Structure to design on (686 residues):
């Protein structure tokens, strides 16, 4: 079972590196959305600094959501998902590997890019570790929850907007906690408690969402 | 333990029969409870010493809020039953509940906004309860939209069941995170319904209204489910006989 | 009764208010080949997907060696192979990588075995090109190469396996399927094409007649 998990990661890595453009798209989207906010609300440093936790988190959330629409689409169209469902391996393990690969290639680059954009918004440099920690804990939850929606809507012609409708309400706790951590850090308050909360939410998501994703895939494939 | 009643519940025909016998009783209970609650709450109960008469909208707002939350939970329970025991009736109940739940969430938000104007001076304040209710409304929209987007009936039912279960696990997390967010940003705001020691003359009509709303939900749900069952089972002989009996003419 | 490998009891399939087939009783023993035929929309693919465990029947049950499928899903998954309209071939991966992954999902195969299987379907020399550069027939063959691997399972469920193949490949595949049945394997498949080579235990199921 571990072997299949590993092999699926390798397969996803191969696929990703043979089409590197898809790796870049969410990053560019993330950067553009961040640039939109100063243009919309004005370049005042103090205002942007106050807003920066929320802006970074909203932009990261939208970027993850955008990349999720295609998560299972090509695997659905070329019949790969059918092969997963009929294989003797637990589907939950396979989808967990798939989501992990997705996070490694779209979530992690976002996390790595975020300090640059946060600095542009005026977040003090000494708060960057908190930003990284919150995104490192938060973006995998976004990927896992989003994969549930992606699995349920993969068989639909216009699943994209529906996916957004299904998943965004579920993202709210992550958004609140993630930007809350940063706000606490900006005000010089301790952040460990919030990060631990996010850690426990991540644990919960890793434990439960593979079951829901697997159920969603079985439904979409069985239609 | 004898489980035959449970499996009998899965038979659409049996359900149609039993629900037909329960409906008149439930309708009577709804009318009685809601009328009593409304008259008592709107006319007899004393005015609030702080809010005056505007608090009376509570008699709609609170039951609607209760119902909006309970309906989502009942949908998730139906979802589990449908997924585990593959019971068709549970699927029907889930999908027919969603629009009622969405309406209740909407009514709760609307009355909350109307109540907010005299209390807070604004129609919308980012109060924890109102925000959580808004998110709940979005969750309902998700279930309804997913159910309508999937053309295959069984797939739609199972997809909605999965979504409802995922949603119900999230609801407590959403609720607490929103409450936490609220205290972080606007400490000690005045919440609408948490009042120290409401006198009995105020809460008894509220209780009647809550019970009345639950009966109302059951009535509407049963009626919607019966219609859906007739639609689904339209090929079977008992439905043909029933439709002939109801319309009084041969098809 | 244990020699009955796969059995259906009162199998009914309903799609979007329409009954495709109802009360279907089937028995498949070792060495048998079953061709499911019938007009378009008669439920051929649905029946195969039900048997492969991709769909849930509306009514009835499927038994694997006498036990309902619910509990035996993983056993059947180990002993059956499903190739649908889309065979799970990734255009960006080479035939070799595709096969390696598809077999790893089930039992795993050595690089040599994969190379031999590709040679058997006439793809020698194409091991290292991405599949999207291959023709439709060649891509089909990549999927079918799984049937030539030494550890291939006993039951093959194939949906339209002859699509896009040229004459020679069709004849070769027919021979391969027949040989598999002679060795005690089983094949369930759909096709609109008239089979030239049939094993001794061939039978045909015509769908779309009982409802008419």
């Amino acid at each position: 079972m571990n072997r299949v998990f590993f092999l699926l990661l390798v397969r996803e890595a191969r696929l990703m590196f043979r089409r590197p453009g898809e790796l870049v798209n969410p990053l560019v989207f993330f950067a553009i959305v961040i640039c939109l906010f100063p243009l919309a609300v004005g370049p005042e440093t103090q205002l942007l600094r106050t807003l920066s936790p929320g802006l970074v988190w909203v932009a990261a959330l939208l970027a993850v959501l955008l990349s999720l629409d295609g998560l299972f689409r090509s695997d659905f169209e070329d019949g790969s998902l059918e092969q997963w469902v009929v294989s003797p391996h637990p589907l939950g393990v396979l989808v967990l590997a798939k989501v992990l690969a997705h996070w490694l290639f779209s979530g992690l680059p976002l996390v790595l890019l975020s300090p640059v954009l946060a600095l542009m918004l005026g977040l003090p440099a000494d708060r960057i570790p908190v930003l990284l920690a919150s995104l490192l804990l938060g973006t995998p939850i976004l990927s896992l929850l989003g994969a549930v929606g992606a699995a349920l809507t993969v068989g639909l012609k216009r699943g994209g907007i529906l996916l957004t409708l299904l998943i965004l309400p579920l993202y709210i706790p992550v958004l609140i906690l993630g930007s809350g951590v940063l706000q606490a850090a900006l005000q010089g308050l301790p952040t460990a408690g919030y990060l631990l909360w996010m850690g426990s939410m991540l644990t919960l998501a890793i434990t439960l969402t593979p079951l829901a994703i697997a159920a969603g895939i079985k439904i979409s494939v069985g239609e | 333990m004898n489980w035959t009643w449970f499996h009998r519940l899965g038979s659409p025909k049996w359900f149609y029969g039993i629900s037909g016998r329960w409906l008149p009783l439930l309708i009577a209970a709804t009318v009685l409870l809601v009328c009593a609650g409304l008259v008592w709450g709107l006319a007899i109960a004393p005015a609030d010493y702080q809010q005056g008469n505007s608090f009376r909208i509570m008699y709609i707002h609170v039951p609607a809020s209760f119902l909006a939350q309970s309906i989502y939970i009942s949908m998730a329970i139906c979802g589990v039953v449908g997924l585990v025991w593959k019971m068709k009736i549970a699927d029907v109940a889930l999908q027919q509940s969603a629009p009622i739940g969405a309406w209740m969430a909407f009514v709760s938000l609307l009355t909350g906004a109307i109540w907010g104007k005299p209390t807070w001076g604004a129609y919308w304040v980012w109060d924890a309860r109102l925000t959580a209710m808004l998110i709940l409304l979005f969750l309902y929209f998700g279930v309804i939209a997913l159910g309508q987007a999937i053309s295959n009936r069984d797939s739609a039912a199972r997809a909605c069941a999965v979504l409802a279960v995922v949603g119900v696990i999230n609801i407590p997390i959403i609720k607490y995170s929103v409450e936490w967010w609220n205290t972080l940003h606007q400490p000690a705001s005045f919440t609408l319904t948490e009042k120290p020691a409401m006198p009995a003359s105020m809460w008894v009509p509220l209780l009647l209204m809550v019970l009345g709303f639950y009966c109302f939900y059951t009535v509407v749900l049963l009626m919607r489910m019966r219609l859906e069952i007739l639609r689904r089972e339209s090929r079977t002989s008992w439905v043909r006989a029933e439709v002939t009996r109801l319309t009084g003419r041969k098809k | 009764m244990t020699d009955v490998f796969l059995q259906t009891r009162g199998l009914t399939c309903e799609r979007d208010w329409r009954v495709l087939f109802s009360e279907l009783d089937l028995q498949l023993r070792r060495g048998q080949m079953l061709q499911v035929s019938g007009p378009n929309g008669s439920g051929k693919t649905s029946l195969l997907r039900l048997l492969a465990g991709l769909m849930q029947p509306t009514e009835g049950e499927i038994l694997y060696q006498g036990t309902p499928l619910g509990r035996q899903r993983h056993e059947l998954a180990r002993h059956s192979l499903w190739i649908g309209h889309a065979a799970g071939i990734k255009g960006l991966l080479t035939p070799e990588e595709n096969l390696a992954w598809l077999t790893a999902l089930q039992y795993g195969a050595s690089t040599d075995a994969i190379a031999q299987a590709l040679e058997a379907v006439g793809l020698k020399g194409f091991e290292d090109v991405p599949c999207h550069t291959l023709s439709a027939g060649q891509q089909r063959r990549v999927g079918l190469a799984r049937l030539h691997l030494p550890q291939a399972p006993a039951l093959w469920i194939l949906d339209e396996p002859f699509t896009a193949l040229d004459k020679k490949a069709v004849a070769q595949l027919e021979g391969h399927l027949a040989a598999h049945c002679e060795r005690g394997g089983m094949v369930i498949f759909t096709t609109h094409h008239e089979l030239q080579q049939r094993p001794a235990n061939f039978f045909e199921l015509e769908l779309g007649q009982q409802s008419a």
Remarks:
- Helices of chain B lie at 4-9, 12-44, 58-85, 88-120, 128-149, 153-185, 200-232, 237-247.
